[in-house]
Structure formats: C-alpha cells, structure tokens
C-alpha cells in the first residue's frame, strides 16, 4: 500500500533547527506531479519524526505540526509519524510532547484522518522485542486490515504479542519505562554537562528526550574523517552525512547514550573533546 501512495521525489534534508520545514514541503508538493488515479485516498506519503527527532533530538513546534496536518488534508498526503522515542522524555514532569496524531483532530470539520502514529516496544521494553503498534484513523485501520500482507501473509507476531500483553497487565513495561527514563535522562544530561565543562568546540542543543546527541563540529573538520580517527581511539560516533540522503551535514556527529554507562560516557566525552581540539594544533 505504502509503495503506491508514496511520492516520486525524495524529501531530504529540508529541515531547520526544529525539524521539517512545512513551507519547503509545500513547495515540493506543488512542484511534484502526484498520481492522478489511485484506489487509495492518499496520493503521497511523508515519513516524519516530530518528537525527539533522530538524530537531531528536536521536537517540532505545535504550529508546524498543525501546518503539516493542514497540508496533508489539502494535498491528500498520508503522514507516517515515527513515534518511537516520545515516551523517552526526560523533563521534570515526564510528560511527552503531543504526537503529530494529536493535531489531526477528529473534532475539526475537515477531519478525515491523515496521520499514522507508529510506535515500538523495542525502545521502552527490550531491544530484541520486535513488536510495535499503530494508532490512526478508522479508515486507515481498515486499509491496513485489507492490504495484501495482512490478508495473505498473516504477518502478526502472535507469540511476542502475548508476551508483551502479559507484561503490560503485570505493569512490567511501565516499570521498565520509568527505569529507562531515569537511566537515559541521567546519561544524556551527564554527556551535555561534560561537553560544557570541557568547553568542547561544538554546537549542540540539549535534548529533552530520545537517545542521541547531535553535535556540529567546526567547519574545517570532516565528520567522516573524524569518525575514523575516533574509532582508532575506541570512540564510536556516527558522522552526520550518514543521516542524510543527500550526503549533507558533513561536519556533524551523532552520539548515542543508550548502551554505555554514565562514567564511560564522561570518559568518552573527554577523549572526544581532546580529539576535536587536536585539529587546531
């Protein structure tokens, strides 16, 4: 189904500090011919992450979320929101920002349901628990029920579904989520604090959730080269161009805090800072 409704042109790297730029997206919609005939109600699809973006860590402001929903209704776009990090929120009250789905308001007169919220248990319960869930409108649910993969392949993970269902009943998922919020929140705050203490010559915004730090290096440093030099010092980072379909963000790095304990993260930031400064030597 998704192959048939997706756009013919890639929408890559059209972001600002908040994430996707709705104005640029509308220009693309206007400039790109859409299929004139389709048995589905959507002629294009946008895959988007509006809460704790990977790799940027940003959250799309409410006014931009509303604009995306408005554009989806105007141009018959299916909004596929990857909501896999929203529950990993590290603010004091722990309340996640509203998902894009919340802005596709069924009380509005032009509501038809254009948004899918795609979620997973692998980030909040167990990495090996390859099970997720979808929240969306009744008409999209019906489309998913009727699609070939569902009807012919019966592609449901029944065994794992029962395991997670029982874990939810017993409160195990909720307990683990609370533990992860504290654990990951401590790690990401420690990493940011260490970067500031070391006066590391990078630009970054401290994320309020998710698993990643997005660092802008000095212009003279190639992220790809830096990744290899860091690897030689037993530092695992990802150069920013690997997060770009167009090969942009060449002087950016993504750092993950999900696996390494806090003391190792602080040691790693010290080594990272030292390596960055060596480029000025």
Summary keywords:
281 residues, alpha/beta, 3-stranded antiparallel beta sheet, 13% strand, globular
What shape does the CA trace take? globular
How far the N terminus sits from the C terminus, by CA atoms, comes to: 55 Å
> What is the share of helical residues?
25-40%
Computed CA radius of gyration, to the nearest angstrom: 21 Å
pLDDT average, as an integer? 91
Strand runs, count: 9
Query: If helices are DSSP runs of H or I spanning 4 or more residues, what is the number of helices?
Result: 9
Fraction of residues in β-strands: 5-15%
Largest sheet: 4 strands, mixed
Give me the side-by-side strand order of the main sheet.
Answer: 3-4-5-6
The secondary-structure element order is: HEEHEHEEEHHHHEHEEH
Low-confidence stretches at least 5 residues in length (pLDDT < 50)?
A: 1-10
Tell me the structural class. alpha/beta
Quick overview:
Helices cover 38% and strands 13% of the residues.
Structure description:
It is built from 9 helices and 9 strands. The chain has 281 residues and is of the alpha/beta class. The strands form 3 sheets. The chain has a 4-stranded mixed sheet. It has a 3-stranded antiparallel sheet with strand order 7-9-8. Helix 7 (172-197) runs parallel beside helix 9 (262-278). The N and C termini lie far apart (55 Å). Mean pLDDT is 91; it is low at 1-10.
């Amino acid at each position: 189904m998704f192959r048939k409704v997706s756009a013919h042109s890639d929408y890559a790297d059209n972001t600002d500090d908040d994430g996707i730029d709705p104005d640029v997206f509308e220009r693309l919609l206007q400039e790109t011919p859409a299929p004139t005939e389709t048995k589905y109600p959507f002629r294009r699809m946008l895959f988007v992450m509006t809460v704790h973006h990977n790799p940027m860590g940003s959250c799309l402001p409410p006014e931009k979320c509303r604009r995306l929903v408005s554009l989806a209704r105007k141009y018959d776009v299916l909004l596929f929101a990857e909501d896999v990090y929203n529950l990993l929120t590290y603010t004091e009250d722990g309340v996640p920002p509203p998902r894009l789905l919340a802005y596709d308001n069924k009380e509005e007169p032009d509501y038809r349901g254009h948004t899918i919220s795609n979620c997973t248990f692998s980030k909040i319960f167990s990495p090996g628990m390859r099970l997720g869930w979808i929240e969306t409108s009744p008409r999209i649910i019906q489309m998913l029920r009727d699609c070939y993969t569902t009807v012919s392949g019966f592609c449901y993970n029944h065994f794992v579904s029962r395991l997670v269902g029982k874990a939810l009943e017993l409160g195990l998922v909720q307990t683990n989520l609370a533990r992860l919020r504290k654990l990951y929140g401590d790690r990401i705050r420690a990493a940011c604090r260490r970067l500031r203490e070391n006066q590391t010559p990078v630009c970054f915004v401290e994320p309020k959730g998710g698993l990643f730090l997005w660092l802008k290096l000095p212009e003279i440093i190639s992220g790809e080269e830096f990744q290899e030099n860091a690897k030689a010092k037993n530092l695992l980072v990802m150069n920013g161009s690997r997060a770009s379909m167009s090969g942009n963000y060449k002087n950016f790095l993504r750092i993950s805090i999900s696996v390494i304990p806090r003391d190792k993260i602080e040691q790693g930031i010290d080594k990272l800072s030292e390596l960055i400064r060596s480029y000025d030597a």
